[in-house]
Amino acid sequence: MTNKGKKQYVLVVNLKSRQSAEAIDKVEELFMSRDVLLKVIKVKNPRRIKEAFEEALSANADTIILGGGDGTLISGIEYLSLKDYQKPIGLLPLGTANYLARNLDIPLDLDGSIENLLNGSTRLIPIGVANDKFFALTFIVGLTQKVAAEVSDNLKRKFGQLAYILELIKQTRKHKAFRYTIESPDLKKPLKGLTHQIIVYNSDINLQLKLVPDHSLERTSLKVVVIKCGKSKFKLYVGFLVHILTAGKLKPYMKVFETQSLKITTDPVLAADYDGEPYNHSPFNVELYKRKVHIIC
């Protein structure tokens, strides 16, 4: 990349994501039509994604763009942040749910998302970390973690977001409550009890339904919601349903607090859902990452 006067972009795209393979040719055409320098690094084997991120760094472009589903985008943000990359990061949503792009108001259509990449402003976005693994929106222990872990790629490709709902129905029937202990500097004493779900998030995740209390990316804190339902799945449903129907005015069976760090211990040992991707096992040390990242949105 030696052309002077032109902004230089590098796109790392995961061809395994739902839309990537069919969209990449159009992406290259759209960039060419805007007379912009673009290098595309296509990743066919997800195991080589870190090599692709390293290649993108070595190109020393003005902006690195991450293309794929939420898992690819979060992995790229994590890798670049740990490498102390401080230039803008662009996001090209090509997955099934695209929760991160939706939350940041990034257009999901190709023309709109590329227009955002070329002309959007850069925001400093806080990132969470749990047991040294990053999450950009949500960290969940419990029922919906099983959904993220068990929903098949084929189902996601065929049904899109409906795949998660179908898997939720399936997992709800057999899910068992678990014991938890939550410790935090912002709690007078540890929280203990039985639940089906613990949710930690750093932005507004109520994109369509007001499932949990609102939060904002502008706040430098994590919001924590513990569904205090004991073994009862009925209370779990009632808690969510009442919160939805009252637009968040009532929060039955919900313990809510904000913090910058917490520790979650569970019995039995459980995995967690990081932005829709299953990783690690309890106990979890959760906190905000020391530095915000520059995202074009």
Notes on the protein architecture:
There is one protein chain. This protein is α+β, with helices and mostly antiparallel strands. It has 2 domains: 8-120, Probable inorganic polyphosphate/atp-NAD kinase, domain 1 (Rossmann fold), CATH 3.40.50; 133-290, Tumour Suppressor Smad4 (Sandwich), CATH 2.60.200. It is built from 9 helices and 18 strands. The strands form 4 sheets. It has a 6-stranded antiparallel β-sheet. α2 (49-58) crosses α3 (70-82) and α6 (143-150) packs across α8. The protein is globular, with a radius of gyration of 20 Å. The protein starts with 7 loop residues before the first strand and ends with a strand.
- At the third CATH level, what is the topology name of the largest domain? Tumour Suppressor Smad4
**Binned strand content:** 25-35%
| Euclidean distance between termini CA atoms | 25 Å
Uncertain stretches of 5 or more adjacent residues: none
Quantity of strands, as a count: 18
The assigned structural class equals alpha+beta
How many independent structural domains?
2
Mean pLDDT: 85
CATH architecture of the largest domain: Sandwich
